[in-house]
Each structure stands twice: as C-alpha cells, then as structure tokens.
Amino acid sequence: MIPPQKQMTGMLGHPVAENPIDRMFDGVYAHYGLNWQFWKNDIANAHDLALAVAALRPLGYRGMAITVPWKVAVIPLLDDVDADVRAIGAANYITIEAGRLIGHNNDGKGVVKAIEKLSLLKGARVVMLGAGGAGRAMAVEMAWAGAAHLTLVTRREEQGREVAERVTKASGVAADWQLWQDPVHVPPGTTLLMNATHLGCAPELEPVPLLWDCVDPACTVVDVITNPRITPFLATARSHGCPIVDGVEMLVQLAMQIFEQWTGITSEEAVFQQAVAAALGEP
C-alpha cells in the first residue's frame, strides 16, 4: 500500500533558527499519528516573502505560520483575512481553504490565555516594550480582555502612535505612546509589563535596558521570547520579586489553536507542553 502523502505546514520569518516551533509541532503531529510535518523557512526580504507565499498553493501546503518581521507585510499577499486581522493590522498564520490563502491572528489570544493563568487583565495598566506585528495583536487583545490603559514604548514614534490609535479604535481603551529611552522608565502604577521586542532571544541574549527601580514588585512581567524560556528580562524580573509569564507558555496557547484550525483535532494542552519541553531540551 502506498502511504498517504505527507501534509506540509511551516513558518515564514527572519530569523527563525532558534524558534522551537517546528520540533514542537512535529512532536504533536507524531503524538496524534498524523503524517504531517512542519518546516521553518528563513525569508530575508520582502521580495522572497512574495515568492514564498505565492508558492504555498502549488507546493501543497496545508497552513503556514507567519512570524517577525512579516506579520504586516504578508497581508496584501493573501486572498482574504479574518476580522481579527482587519482590526489588528497583522496576521500570524494562514489557512489554505479551497485554494485560497486566508490570514488569521491569534497572537493576542495566546498571550491573554497565558497571562490569565497568573493574573487577571481586567483593570490592568499595561506597558508594552515594542509594537511590531505580534505586539500590536497582543495590545488589542489585552484591551479587549479588559485592560484599563496601555502605553506603547517604541523608538519609532510613527509606529507607536499608530498602534496606540489602533488599540483605542478597536477597543475604546485609552492607549498612548512613550519614547524608548536607555534605560526605559516604566510609568508609575504599571501592573503589567511586557517585552514584545527581540531583546533577550538566543543566541545574543541581549538585556532589555530598563530602570528596574521604577517597577513595582507586584507588577506581572511578560516576555514574548520563546528561546530561552527564561530570558535575561524575566530572570531580572523574578529576582526583583515580580510574577512572570514566559513566551513558551504563550507559544503553547496560540499553537494549540492553530493546530486545531489546520487539522480539525482539538489537542490536549499537556501534549503541547511536553512537545515544547522536548524541543527546548528541558527535562
């Protein structure tokens, strides 16, 4: 008997080498006995992004995750997007339905689920460092989840103000922009602090330049970085007494939703937690 053709999924981004998502998904596919595979693809420029997206149909891909820096740039290359993408202005995965490429965004849904395992977002005063494709999705979703106020800290004023305006337009929640300075000063009254930049990612492990004396030890600190699980930012936050939420937890929450969209199977969280721990070489 000829075995069934392997079903292909993957991710487009730059850089992607340190992201454990491929080993995690392949572990989950194996657990459920699926003849599926996940490929990471390092796409270095916008021209190659257009070529890669156009190739998804003829290559027979079933779905594709989108990561930095292409979550905004990918939108014009798609056939359609869902309501979340229209509100947020970024897409983090694609489903391929009847030959049509449909963009979706659940970055924010993943972070909300991860945060609310530890603390409620309702009434939170959030400071987000960075406001790229993932950051804008998370900002909007946290506002939808009941955050009282958001401050976007970016080096580029145009980006920070645009995302702040998008948050308020989508949710009615007040949001403003603060210039990134070295070190970053966190406004008084902040109850949730998130790093949505690449600072701290392996192998560079760059520290986030933050004045920790401004951070209340009761403030929940969140990092979007998935490798390492405990970044320099989170390690410092923990030593400061802050409760922390790591990027791996967010990855698990959003990946479970993507897996269900692609395969039609509702996964158990423990399966994803075990798969990502194995991918990171954790005991």
Q: Your description of this structure?
A:
This protein has helices at residues 21-31, 46-59, 83-88, 107-115, 133-144, 157-171, 232-239, 247-263, 269-279; strands at 7-13, 36-42, 61-66, 80-81, 93-97, 100-104, 125-129, 149-154, 174-179, 192-195, 220-223, 244-245. The chain is an alpha/beta fold and 283 residues long. A hairpin with a 2-residue loop joins strand 5 and strand 6. The radius of gyration is 18 Å and the shape is globular.
CATH fold naming of the largest domain: Rossmann fold
So how many helices? 9
Shape from CA axes?
A: globular
Number of separate strands: 12
Average pLDDT confidence is: 95
CATH architecture of the largest domain: 3-Layer(aba) Sandwich
How would you write the strand order of the largest sheet?
2-1-3-5-6-4
| Estimated helix fraction | 25-40%
End-to-end separation: 39 Å
Low-confidence runs: none
The largest β sheet comes out as: 6 strands, mixed
Task: Kindly name the structural category.
Answer: alpha/beta
Percentage beta strand:
15-25%
Evaluate the radius of gyration. Answer: 18 Å
Work out the count of structural domains.
2
What is the CATH homology-level superfamily of the largest domain? NAD(P)-binding Rossmann-like Domain
Order of SSEs, N→C?
A: EHEHEEHEEHEHEHEEEHEHH
CATH top level assignment of the largest domain: Alpha Beta
